Every structure is written in C-alpha cells, then in structure tokens.
Please model this.
Amino acid sequence: MTSKIDKFDSETRDILSYLESREEICDIKINNTYGVSSSQLNDWENRNLCSLPQDLRNFYSNHNGVLIEWSIKIDESEPLQLGRIQINAIKDLTKVGSVLSKDLREPSIYDLEDLQSPPKINSKNSVQLSEINQADSGNIESSSECSEEENSECKKNIKILIPHFDDLSRNFELDNCNGYGKVCLVYRNSKPGMIVSEQSAEIWFLDRSLQWHYLTDSFKNYYRLALSHLGLPQWQMLYTQDGLPPFLNQWFYLFCPGRILVHQEKWKNSNFISLLDSVSNSNSKKSLNQEDSKKINFAKLFEDKNTK
Model:
C-alpha cells in the first residue's frame, strides 16, 4: 500500500495514515490510476464546451479519478464497509439531467427546477438573498412571456442562481454518493453553443428530491472537505437544511468529532435540538415539583384541626 500512498499529496497521505492508525479500521482499499493526458482533457472540454478549472485539471493530470474505501471491524462479525471517497474518472464526468421534453403531459425534472427556493451561497458569484428572489421571479416572468421564436433570445438575458436541468446550466457528476445524491461540477448561466469559462465552475450537491445544495466554489476545497470528513456516509448532508440523519451521528463522533463541532451552531438552531431542550426543561420542572411535594410541611402537621 505504501507505493499507492506515495502517489497522493501530503493531505491525502495524512488521512490515509490516520485511517491505518485506528485499530477498528480495516480493509483500506485504494483504487488510484495514472493521470490523464492534456489531449484527453482538451477533448473533454471540446465535447462539453466547458473549460475545466485549473485545480481539477491538475488533479486529473495526476489521477484519473480516485476511490478510497475503508471498513470497520466490530466484535467477530464481518467487516462493515463505512467510508468512501470517490472522484469519477474523466470518462465518467458525464452530464446530469438532460431535458427530453417540456410537455406538461410528460413531466420531467425540467418541471421541478423552479420549485426550489434559492439557497444562501457564499462564493465569488453570490448575491444577496433579496436579489436572488427578485431575479428568479423576473426570470420566470420573462421566460413565460417569450414565444417559441423568441425563446433563444430570452435565454440570453436569463441569469440563474441555482443549477437548472436544461441548457441554462451544465452539470457534471463527480461522485454518485452511493445512490443518496450526486456531487456535481456545475457551470451556471451557460449559453447554448458557447464555451463556458472555468471561473463559473462550482461544486453543488443534488439530493434524491432533486434539490440543489451549494458546497464550495472550487474542486480543491471540495476534495479537502471529503478528506476531512473521511468519506463517512452522507457527509454532504451536513451542508443541507435537513442536516445529517441522526443515526449516522455516532460514526462522526467516533472518527471525526471536529466536523460535528463545526456544524454545532447549525444543530443548535434546529427544531430537533430545541425540542430536546424543551423536553428536558419540562422534566426538570416536574422533578422539582415532585421534590417539593415530598417535603414535610411541619406547620401543617402540628396545626390545630379547629383552625382549619
């Protein structure tokens, strides 16, 4: 395994060394292939009319995708496959969500794209939330007013702030997340037949309900996030409004508690935690009342019956 580890950068080697140091972790599998040539990268860009970000180009120049899997051993049972860090190979960096029909009698994912309220994003292309709402409402009105002949002209003036499933944005799958979603390389505000600049590339998470969640503004930052979360199941859900499923918290507290602490403020503001606080407060009040009821009132004990 040492030869495979040497091919990675220092951050990946540190994470792999940490996994090897844990006694409960076993079956660390690394699928790392040789890099992609510049001609292959240029061919992908020409076919998809998108310029790859420089950090992603550097990654593919050294690794044609990567897959790191690790398991845990509990008692005498079979090892449980738990962690998984994956970046698709260049041939699997394929487009997500092609629109086949706009007929309302045959609904598709195209009909769901404007049902989502825009998220709060912090990137070089982000704007204020009020501006997002105004822009989205303006886009919907302008698109509805366009006739079929003017449709192409209208699309030139539309600026979207969340990824779409039509030709207004181009989305490419980086990781299929074991079926619970997709991590995508997203180019927003693309124009048909035009090459999209690498400066508009961002990383978004698409959940199973077809809702988009912003992750980060560069591939390098996303790869660091994947490493820092050790590829634990559904770690991308920490960056959504729903949060991490409660039954997965135990693995994060066990292997990377620091990541839970980062998101602690978000959990404090959730309804689940506030509900627990209200229940604990009510239980404490009940216990105080019970303690008061158990105390002996000596004044009443020796009180004359005639005075009652």
The mean pLDDT is 76. The first helix runs from residue 2 to 6. The longest strand covers residues 25-32.
